Amino acid sequence: MSIMKKKILCLALAAALFMSGCKSNNDTVVATVGDTPITMSEFDFYLTSVKQQLEGTELSSDEDWQTKDINGKKAIEVAKEQALDIAAKNAAYKMIYEKMGKTITEEDKKSIKETKDSIVSQYEQSGGYDAFLTQANITDEFIDMLCESMFCSEQLYNEYTAGREVTEDEINAFYDENYDTYYSSYRRAKHVLILTKDMDTNEEYSEEKKAEAKKKADEIYARAKNGENFDSLVSQYSEDPGSQTQPEGYTFTDGEMVQEFQDCVDSLAPGEIGFVESSYGYHIIQRLEVDKSYFNEDVKARILSNGFDEYIEQKMDEYGIIVEEKEAINDALSSK
Description:
By secondary structure, the protein is α+β, with helices and mostly antiparallel strands. The chain folds into 2 domains: 14-19 and 27-168 and 295-334; 187-289, Chitinase A, domain 3 (Roll), CATH 3.10.50. It has helices spanning 40-54, 62-67, 75-99, 106-124, 129-136, 140-161, 168-177, 179-183, 207-225, 230-237, 241-245, 259-266, 296-318, 329-334, and strands spanning 29-33, 36-39, 69-70, 73-74, 187-195, 250-252, 273-277, 281-288, 323-325. Helix 3 (75-99) crosses helix 6 (140-161).
């Protein structure tokens, strides 16, 4: 793993930790999925999570959600539709599972409990599970439902994807059609890193040792600019372990590399070589064209996921699982 990559901690349901304030549980029904009610508190949970995924420079204030457009709709309306879709499918997975004649066995219940125990354990280590429920404004029963829903959706997904092949034509078509949405922000680069600190202790080198590192980096940069084989320079001199484990270079998007590295890459055209200093040391960087095949697995996963969503919607229609909004759902949006 690259020492350049930032560490990101991913916990199940983590988005809920950042909800502002603690509110009492509100069991007002804002929608129904078949006979299953979606309460205001549950919808708030989904809506907050969706909003955090949509947040960006164009959605930075409460007013933005009411005034900014996304594909011709107000941002808050888009968030509502996505939140309701997630809530509806989470409720529908188990219904579909049972209507297809499947049952949750005792062994399955053990697996579901393990998922629940994992979630509880994560939050006990970061402030307490009960505190998490209070802050997220949800109940323990809601977590139980999510764990069952996760199990049923995984089983249905595995059945849906079994034996399904995604063709190269499908991959290419999806990539081209969705390039601006998912892939346009990616860059690819190789670098020679000459460190200016001890990576084991995180201590900065002495000024004398830094000066030696700078002299070495300058010499390598000059050799690279004079046309010497860049891969050979990387192999011989780079002090980043990732240079050896990822010889094809780093493919990354915004925020995944230290800012100085990203800014330098952005200043270069493919094939050009640049030089920059960061908190790690000196980087001699060559920008490269992004390899389309790098995204193949992501494209396949998205194609299968989209197909699965359509499959679930077809099953909901087939089994008469109707999603009905209540007027109260608008109250959830007014303060969002």
